Amino acid sequence: MKKLLLPFLFFSLKLSAQNVQQIHQKAILIDTHNDVLSNQLITKFDLAKRQTEGNFDLVRAKEGGLKAQIFSIWCGEKYGKGTAFAMANREIDSLYALIKRNPDKIALARNSAELQNIVKQKKLAALIGVEGGHMIEDRMDYIDSLAKRGMRYLTLTWNNSTSWATSARDEVTKKDSLPHLGLSDYGKQIVRHLNGLGVMVDVSHVGERTFYDVLATTTKPVIASHSCAYSIDPNRRNLKDEQLKALAKNGGVVCVNFYSGFVDSAYSAKVQSFVKQHKAELDSLVKIYHDVDLATIRLNTIHKTESEQLRPPLSMLIHHIDYIVKLIGVDHVGIGSDFDGSESFPQEMNSVADYPKITEELLKLHYSEKDIDKILGGNVMRVLKANAGK
Ligand SMILES: [Zn+2]
């Protein structure tokens, strides 16, 4: 009997809270997708101070062992020619201002060497990802300008297609009425241009046809900055097994999204009945916030116990990571939370302070420290470096 108990005791000892923290804090954790900047233009939260709402601030980021954040620069599809690029720059300005106000806490990283240097100085490395090809307004010189300001990935489409790339939403819902499908010739030029600049091509949000056109065009590994496994949750924003395999062949990385709707296939039905019940209240919140997502986040806060039931368990999120690792290997998975970009995340995942729970769960599944390092950021670092090289 004693003999049987020993491995168990050894394992529990290994998983002490201190041990989890040690392994977690040592890793260079890179989150590839956070939407706090576009929200901050509305909320005006001071991100250097601990906030009680939202998922991100510099205090909680430190607690969660976050070493590098790729901030999403995003605006909706109502922005187009003449407004979208300006909006992108406005959000980049607000990141620059945050950095200027807090030089001891956060600094801009334009490459992997700068990222590592900033981590050594115990500051958060801030990187820029532009989410939505519409923000370049069909202009190559706008890509150059954004790259100069620090853009390290461009998500080719958001939910809306561009004139040169079709999105996941449009490929599914407008298939027969689309003027073109996948990447146009100009879209291919854009991919090559990004390759040349060392800006990662982000395939989250793009349609399947665009996805495969990108892989046939790019000379560098791609990133899916915030997507999950379609086999577990068949949502058009998630990647099918064949796509995941193709992405691995390209040497790329898929960074798992924490949004409950992409993690749990039962989530949207549960939410629909919740919203139906509180419709009048939600309508009045939309009038205050002028934004359905922010209004829904507020509604969730008001009905905390009820909304808590809608959230999938943390184990479901971990299942996506584990599933992808088993399908395509541990070298192609990362973390792309989508914090501050969604109204719901799995239970226990409330903010950037909660990343250590992922390390804890992976240790429970007997992942080695080396593999955990890769998932938390090592793989993204590899892709970042590969894109910068000629
Ligand atoms: Zn997104």
TrEMBL record:
Q: Name one GO molecular function term.
A: dipeptidase activity
A Pfam family this chain is assigned to: Peptidase_M19
Q: Which residues form a coiled coil?
A: none
Q: Give the matching Gene3D superfamilies.
A: Metal-dependent hydrolases
InterPro entries attached to this UniProt entry: Metal_Hydrolase, Pept_M19
Keywords, ordered alphabetically: Dipeptidase, Hydrolase, Protease
Judged by the first EC level, this protein's enzyme class is: hydrolase
The record ties this protein, via CDD domains, to: rDP_like
Q: Which domain of life is it from?
A: Bacteria
Write the Enzyme Commission number(s) for this entry: 3.4.13.19
The protein depicted here goes by the name Dipeptidase
What's the source species for this entry?
Mucilaginibacter sabulilitoris
